[in-house]
Amino acid sequence: MTVFEQVKSAIDMRTVAEGYGLEISRGGMALCPFHNERTPSAKIYPDALHCFGCGTHVDVIGFTQKMFGLDKPIDAVKKLNEDFGLNIEIGKAPAAKEVSEYQKRVQEKRAYEEWEKSAWRTLNDYLWLMREWREFAPASPDEIPDERFVYSLHHLDYAEYLCWEFINFNKAGRLSMKNIVNQIADFQKNMSADF
Description:
Elements: H1 3-10, H2 13-19, E1 29-30, E2 42-44, E3 49-51, E4 57-58, H3 60-68, H4 73-83, H5 96-133, H6 147-168, H7 171-175, H8 178-194
Antiparallel strand pairs: 1-2, 2-3, 3-4
Helix pairs in contact: 3-4, 5-6, 5-8
C-alpha cells in the first residue's frame, strides 16, 4: 500500500475541502476554488471534487496539489499528512497489519456503496410504483376501487418521504434505514402474489 493510498483511505474529500476553506452546502455543492464563479458548481463526493463548470475532477491529493500550487503529488501527501495529523510514515513501507486494515476498509467502502445503490433503486422503484398505482383510480364513485389504488393512497406520501430522507441523510442516516429498505424490497418481491 502506497502513501497515496494511505492518505486517500485516511481522509475524505469533504474534510479536506472544508479544512482548506471551502463552504459546502448540505447537498454537497461549493464554489469551485479553481475558477471564478458566483453560483456553486463544484460537487463534493466522498473521494473527489468534480466541478461541472470548469471540468476539474480531483481526489484529495490532486485537490491539495492544485490548491497550493505544489509541484508533485508527494508534496500534497506531505502537506495533508502534516495539516490533518494523519501520522503516515512517508518513505517507510506499511506493516502487514496496516495493509490488512486498509484492504478491510476498501472492502467495507465498496460493500456500502453497493448497498447504497441497491437501496436507492429499491426506494425509487417503490415511489414510482406508488405513482403508477394511482392510475387504477375508479372511473366513477360506484366502481369498487382497485386494491393497488387504495394502497397507493396510503403509501405515496411515505414513499416520497423515504426518498427525500435517503437523499438528505449522511451515511449513518442511510444505514439506519436498512430495515425499512429490506421491508420494501420484500414487499416488492411479494407484491405480484398479492396484487
